[in-house]
Input
Amino acid sequence: MADYKLNNDAELLRLIRSDEPQEAEALFAAAREVRNEQYGNEVYFRGLIEFTNYCKNDCYYCGIRRSNAKVKRYRLSLEQVLNSCRMGDVLGFRTFVLQGGEDPWFTDERVVEMVAAIRQAYPDHAITLSIGERSRASYEAFFRAGANRYLLRHETANDEHYRKMHPPAMSLAERKQCLYDLKDIGFQVGAGFMVGTPFQTPENLLEDLRFLEDLKPHMVGIGPFIPQADTPFGAYPGGSLELSLKMVALTRLLLPKALIPATTATGTINPQGREKALMAGANVVMPNLSPKDVRKLYALYDNKICTGDEAAECRLCMEGRIRNFGFVPNMARGDYVGWTARVGTGA
Output
């Protein structure tokens, strides 16, 4: 494996800026080697349930932002969520990822009710939440109810860049504090960022990597920026697959044990994008378990793939594709390597 000087900012910036295909391939090979040392060639499957597309926030890049009047809004009922979990369990999923906008209707009590119902029905499954910024007390309540993991992308670790992407009411300091609180409570925590967002610089991407090093999250989601036409960023160019893959690889080298998904966004901008992400060091995929009739409504960006498939189709299609690339699908919980749950939490 190439000897990368990862503690050297200048070297990392050089790698981020480089457009040499051979150097990128060497980086991907190094990332695969590190991933294989920790997890082998197995790819963990998570079942994604997008349960609400209401959001109180107005992020400039997001298709379900509050001000987008063209979105047809929906909320899944508790029974619909449980039905999606039942389907996922039948298909072999042992991790459910409950994702939604920051929807005020889903109060702490309603989220706790949902998590507790899933935990009662599936005591051995992992439950992941991805519902944005909440108070520490809220996170503690979700943890007690049985949630194990929490995904909250930081989006950018640079305050100036963050302000260019979000309305004044939102704060990078608050976002980071949420991540540190989640980790302190005992969640397996996921952070992450988009590649190629408007105003992003190579130095911003370096800051993202250094922030991840400091936070030491258990999961890191990285994918290209894809514009959504009905947002303030709708006319900006999207991010590149190649740079996104390099950031996946560098993250793998810096955080060898991290669980890194091959995101839907990578597959949206390239038909083999998810497979390429796996070849760059990723080791998780998240087929969609949401009811088929709402999938197109969870439109964070344009032209999202897999919105018309049934849950079984999503799983079988992805399984076949990753086998063709030499990977082994793993439907187990797929915890962070070496993870030890807090006693008495059900985690």
